[in-house]
Fold each of these.
Amino acid sequence: MSQQHQSQPQQQRPGGYFVDPKRGEVGELRSLLRNPEIQRDVKKHRQAVQKVIATMTHGIDVSPLFSEMIMVSASKDITLKKMVYLYLCNYAESNSELSLLVINTLQKDCRDENPMIRGLALRNMCSLRLSSLLEYILPPLKNGLADRSPYVRKTAVMGVLKVYYLNQQAILDSGLVSTVYSLLTETSPVVVVNCLVVLNEIFSNEGGIEITKPLAYMFLNRLLEFNEWAQGIVLDFVRRYSPTSEDEVYEILNVLDSRFKHANAGVVFAAVNVFLQMTDSLPHLLDDVYQRVKVPLLTFMSTGTPEMSYVCLQHLHILLQRRPRLFESDIKLFFCKHQEPTYVKLKKLELLTDAASVANIQDVVDELTAYVTDVDVEMASRSIAALSKIAMRFESCAEFCINQLISFLELDISHVSASTLLVLTDVLRKFPDRAADVLPQLSHCLSSVDIPEARAAIIWMLGEFGEALPASPYLLETVVENVKDEPSHVVRQQLLTSCMKLFFKRAPECQSMLGQLLEYEVNDETHMDVHDRALLYYRLLRNDVEQAARILSVENGAAALRATRFAEDELLETREKLLEVFNSLSVVYNQVPEAFLSQQVPYTQHKAAYGERYFASLTNSSEGGQSTHDEASRRVITLQHQSSTGNLLDVEDDMTFGLDHAAGDASIQSAVPMRAAAAAAAPHSHSLHSDQDLLGLGAEVAPRSSSVGVQLVPNATLDPQNFENLWFATTNSVEAAMTLSVVPTMAELERTFAANNIATMASSEELEAMRFYFYAQLVTGDYVLIEAVFDIPSQELAVTLKADQAPLLGEMVRIFKSCLIGKFMNPDD
Amino acid sequence: MLSQFFVLSARGDTLILKDYRGDVVRGTPEMFFRKLKSWPGGEAPPAFNIESIQFLYVKRNGLLFCCSTKFNVAPAFVLDFLNRVASVFTDYCGVLNEESLKRNFVLVYELLDEMLDFGYPQGSSTEMLKTFVYNTPIAVPADPTDMTLGSAGGVLGALSRAAVATSAEQVSRPATASNQPIAVSYDQARTRRNEVFVDLIEKLTVLVGSNGAVLRSDVDGMLKFKSFLSGSPTIRIGLNDDLVVKAHAGGDAGGRAGSVVLDDVNFHESVSLQKFEQDQTIAFVPTDGEVVLMNYRLTRELPLPFRITPFVEQVSGTRIDLVLKLRCEVPRNIAANQMVVRIPLPKSTNSCTFEIAHGVGQSAEYKANDKTAIWTLRRVNGSSEQVIRCKMFVPDASIVPALRREMGPISMTFEIPMHICSGLQIRYLRVFEKTSSYAPSFRWVRVVTQSDSYVVRI
């Protein structure tokens, strides 16, 4: 497979059948590079190479210049060398045969007397990501680890990790890992920290290298030798150490206290994390620790960039969760600043709400009140929601908050009134006696507010508390009279319920209105749910009025239940867990790591492949800005589907090459057909989709699989991670291609397969192709995994099936086909 | 660690892209940018993920400095690193903008190659990088539109390099004099003057309630240093004798009357922490490039530079007036520059006219689109008072309380050179030279107060 990659561009390069619009430019560059006059003059030579690099960064494919650039690498000039290496790293993968020629120069440079050149050559040699060169890389790497220059040593250490990803076994066999281990205690801090990160990654499946007491103390004692970034990394490592006694904890914390004065947020956050993790089991220390660590975090929040403020706020929120009164006296720091980005303001709002306590509640409420007239609509509505939350939480200031909320209705700003009305429904459930103060405002709100949910809220209040306002039946009456102009079914549904409720309270005033409304809604069928509800009420009333009254009041109980906030409880639980992963993206996302990371230990680049295949297909419609890579390889691989999936299997058999190809191919595959066909086809195929959608209701009744040999389990489940693992672990595969008679929509196909017990793992739509990953489970418990790519212009469906038991595959293909026959495919196909 | 580092222009063009680990799909910058632009509810937070690729970014000078990673990285660490990368680029290119990055891209790649290896930060000090960098920078003039105006230069004490920058971002760019790339080669270093630039910048956050009470007054300050010194002399900057840092002294340290009490402070790694604890001097050996020596914050009642008193009065059935009195409370010999006062007016405002003092560099305009009055004052002298009367025409002026509530909050941006609200002082700046033949150095010191968020509610 990789052979194909390399051979094709060479064939195309000299003449090629396609006229490359940029060929002129590349040709010009080539003659520049070949010009002996330029080669003699270092300055001019540099300019020429710089031009090549510039062209490359503009996204133009300059890979045809590969051999010329290799010539340049022999130059003594270090500036030239650097530029050439930059180029080589970019194109080596697509020119792996020619890359062999570079190795010579690189090897020579690895023996240069200038340590800078040695380091440079070593770094780039390891970055080529060509496992075919492995045998040439290992010896210089070994020498590099023993080099007298720390610069070369640290580069070599990182090189071990790079090569490890290229070929894990080779590194484990080479004994280099133990050399790296021994360098952990050497003198140069830059080398030490690289050893640390390299070993942690290589042993990631064991949670990184084991942290022993001597190791922890060695790092703590040498902490100040490290540069700031290394300090952050070292502290993150020390965090994993569990001290054996409380005195030891004190000792360590004392050493780290000075780190809080560091201007680098990475260092401070890492030190804070050590404090938190080491004292987590010492409850009597927690108060002091939290008071101590909050100070530097508040400093970064206040003095840092908005981005840093945001990260600090998220972390402070975790602390707040554990110590609700932690920021009692710092509350003003969470007041919003004038020009802050919305994401900071909204986060501050959350903290203001959650950090409110009896001691500062007045300040908080005043501040929130001021935000209500903010120009930002989101900000206004969240402030209003925050006020209602505070009203519910602090009985003592509920009255004040509710008065504020009521006063917002007077402002006559549509979005403010709407948000206020929404939260008032919650507030009134808890404080029904305040209804009398709210209701008089509703009359003008009803005429000024046009957001359906808010109107529904008004109507709800009128129905629920209508007895408190003499005019309430008449307010509802105006809505009832205009009901045919009311577009929102939310409003109409609420109107029905409210009229019913008010009817039970004030029957004489409501009877005619209710009758009128029921009659209209029963006869109107624009919204079936409204119609149904009207019919239900009508029948209830006709059957037994008493019973109807009882039923309606039960509904109120259910509504009250809705007011309990489950979503928030969940968030609280998540935050609780997040303390363990303090100082990570988890805190910023408010998500546990598993929710957003696909990479699992031990890290291998394979693992990335599945997610990215899917992913790549989602994104390939973009024009790569920095697409030099893509362009090069796209040209190379005008391949059919089969061959590329074949590659996936090869990767599994022979890990020594193409770790990256798996991911690369996927994006290329999906990109190729897209490029080939005219973009004009897109709107056409789109309209087809929507037609099909309308007709596609019957998909569920597609023929059931009735095969004898293979029986599929209904409702099989498989999570993406396992799918991915299985996909790579399974080597038995079969490929099939079929032509569909129509272009189905993605949903249609998925539904059809689902009806036949073939579930969808992932799917994505591209401009002219659809991509699916399906799976099915056999009664034996085995899984069958399917990748299907449907090329819309050709209506060709290419399928790859994988299963542990090879004999099943043929049968499975038959089942797969049978799902399609009839609806999407002609039987004789 | 980091998979890729990239810089995007404001339009989303990829200016720089370096892939360190090859473990994410290509085209990530486009993916990132599309998500950024389509973020619901405005600006995207500095970290988000698409599928399982994590993106972090910071904005600097209108450029986006971004990275992608597959690890659950420490966000503060990464954001600070991105900021540092931007600073290093500034040090090497002189100015930071699209043009300077494009012109110096080979240099930039060279820097990136040394700063990160396989996605792990290797070092970021401008000084350290100098030994590894061989390309020479190509100077690019700063964007004329946001160029800072240099007033007459002065020596220590007397203010130099006045700047008109208003936002924090612009300030981070050195004024003209220090707007040059650092010297990369020995030849360049020799021809340079031995200069140091010190900036003490305080950013004010003030909130005044509608009753005139000061609800909040905070200062976020920083001491910046940029060196063009040859050799490695020790530098000492003396601050107030009676400086107290609350976070270090323990909770209840009030300090003596009149002393400057900082809530918290942090230092660049080159600064000796011991020396600061001993006698409040900042002692360090300068490195090349611009560094922030110290950040500090304090929350306390401060002598505010401005008092704004608003009056609202109903003039007729359809006209309501807002009179603002702006009193500048700083000493007479000091003045605030480039002051802009923004006053949001009620939504129902049909039009608005102004009465302001004529011919003193003031102007006022009404932006009908966002119903805001903007009052611009080029210079406001200390101990002076300015008045503006905004005459608003509204459908119904009788609902004064409701209209009043819709006005404001007034926000002000300004800069006051030679003035520091916290009382912090640079008492001296000494360069300790090791050899006597050392050329006398030029020391430029600037102190300035800027508005961060100066808000007055009506």
Note: Chain B has three domains: 2-130, 160-205+214-302+420-452, 306-417.
Amino acid sequence: MSLHTLVVDDSAVMRSMLIRTLRLSGLPLTTVEQAGNGQEALEVLARTGIDLALIDLGMPIMDGEALLVKMRENQALARIGVVVVSTEGSQTRIDRLTELGAVFIRKPFTPEEVRTAVLRVLGVGDA
Amino acid sequence: MPDTLRGALADAGIGALENMAWLFAEQSSHASDEGCIGPTARIEFIGVPSGALLLQVEAPLLAVVAGAMLGTDDTPDLVLQRDALGELANVVCGHVLPEIAGTREEYLLAPPTVFTNWEAALKPTDVVAEVVHLAVQGGWARVGFIRPAPN
């Protein structure tokens, strides 16, 4: 397993933190692409084969929930594993994201939490 | 309610600084930072209640915080420092709201806006419901909870 990953967050600092955490988690990453909002993410997804997307919720232009809905509506993107990484504290919203097949982790996060969430969304057991 | 809010602000502020920037922080009873210079992030939220959260971090400390968040010993430029402050405020706000309103309440959070200091981040109609001062390794920070003025 090697993961071509997309990190979507409007904060460059948070994207950097997340990429560093992903690398610390020991997951088998190949390239990590970045996008600053949902619209940019769709453009990356259209031109690149992505296995895993880590998506923030609160973003300008297109937020993370709208992006997730669009991915699930698109046959070519529907099977991509999605981990939502957000400060969201509303269980109501988390339940809605879970129904769309995403796994949720809350900021701030640890490498272990990221690893567990990624393996869960990909349906892979930890070695 | 004030005790709950005060505790929620302190816990969220301390937790964010410790877990995102690896800096030890504790609640401070001294308002020694009043009038001091430090960029301030403001996050407006709509829900029950609506309002805003303010996070101010002393300028030299913010450079350290941003460097820690980016994993670099170099001083990040001011754009990245403001980005780091906004993201830190976002995390604080995201942890405070469910503490005071419960986890079933949904909030719409606006993107953070960063001002040069605390006073500039306040609007004339703001009612400052609570402010918590934090002593942080090598500096200070403060977190404020703002309610809109009643009509």
Note: Helices of chain B lie at 2-21, 59-70, 78-101, 118-121.
